[in-house]
Amino acid sequence: MNNNEKRLADLKAIIQPYIQNQEAFDNLTEDTDFINDLKINSANLVDVVLDVEDKFDIEIDNDSMDKMLNVKAALAVIEDKLSLKEG
Amino acid sequence: MIGNDIVDLQEARLTSNWERPGFLTKVFSKTEQNLIHQSGNSTQTVWRLWSMKESAYKFYLQKKSSAIRGFYPAKINCQIISGDEGEVSIQGLILATKSILCQKYVFSTAFSKANVLGETVIFFLPQNNYDFQSTFAHNRLLDFLVQKNQLDREGLELKKDKNNIPKIFYRSKLLPFSCSITHHGNYGGCSILSI
């Protein structure tokens, strides 16, 4: 598994407890929307963000959280924050 | 325009832990966090402020069709005016809110200060399952319209636009109503405003 695949697998494991549409989760792509497709409750989107912070040991500021509505955007934020950490 | 949001308090207890570290700072301003900590019922205050923000966000998406969706609860600022009234500022708009607070749920509606509140129906959902809730809530909204306007139920149809905003059609013609639908756990609500 390369780094990108590993991150996607980690992200999927994080969001799984909060999904309310199994079919959309089974067919997840980068364009899958957390709210419109996976039907994640918006309060649980806060949990997703906090779980991502814990898992990757990064801090997600409010401007980054603002964009985290789909898989692609979440992966981009993780990538961005990890690169800052590695300096 | 009208926006609404409901929080089933039992469901929230089971699925959202607002006391987990970091939760409050991601969602609320310092002033709002003080309101929560000073409240005699912090859990109710958390979900009241949350539903005020959510309903204002739904109003904003209706108002501005070019609006880009985003997740920015901490940038939506709430003030509590009285037991059930509030004021919310979102992207430069100032909205009024009205909340219903009871033991089972918290429900808020956001509306323009120049406008009236509209009409709301709140209902119990016998099954806590997303697809069931969604279909049930849609049907309740249409039934509510039939009851209020003596329309033929067969001719009514609900469609959602790209921002997930419900639009009501009667015999394929768009009706002049703003509406908002919400459901969570075992409770749902529909709000309608004539425009």
How would you summarize what this structure contains?
Chain A is mainly α. Helix content of chain A is 63%, strand content 0%.
Overall description:
Chain A is an all-alpha fold and 87 residues long. Chain A has a single domain (3-86), classed as ACP-like (Non-ribosomal Peptide Synthetase Peptidyl Carrier Protein, Chain A, Orthogonal Bundle). Chain A is built from five helices and no strands. Chain A has helices at residues 3-15, 22-26, 42-56, 62-67, 71-86. In chain A, helix 1 (3-15) packs across helix 3 (42-56). Chain B has two domains: 2-116, Ribosomal Protein L22, Chain A; 122-194, no CATH class. Chain B contains five helices and eleven strands, in the order E-H-H-H-H-E-E-E-E-E-H-E-E-E-E-E. In chain B, the strands form three sheets. Chain B has a five-stranded antiparallel sheet. In chain B, strands 6-11-10 form a three-stranded antiparallel sheet, sandwiched between helices. In chain B, a hairpin with a 2-residue loop joins strand 8 and strand 9 (173-174).
Strand and helix map with partners:
The complex is a heterodimer of chains A (87) and B (195).
Chain A: H1 3-15, H2 22-26, H3 42-56, H4 62-67, H5 71-86
Chain B: E1 2-8, H1 9-15, H2 23-27, H3 30-38, H4 42-63, E2 77-80, E3 85-90, E4 93-101, E5 105-112, E6 119-124, H5 130-149, E7 156-160, E8 166-170, E9 173-174, E10 177-184, E11 187-194
Antiparallel strand pairs in B: 1-5, 2-3, 3-4, 4-5, 6-11, 7-8, 8-9, 10-11
Helix pairs in contact in B: 3-4
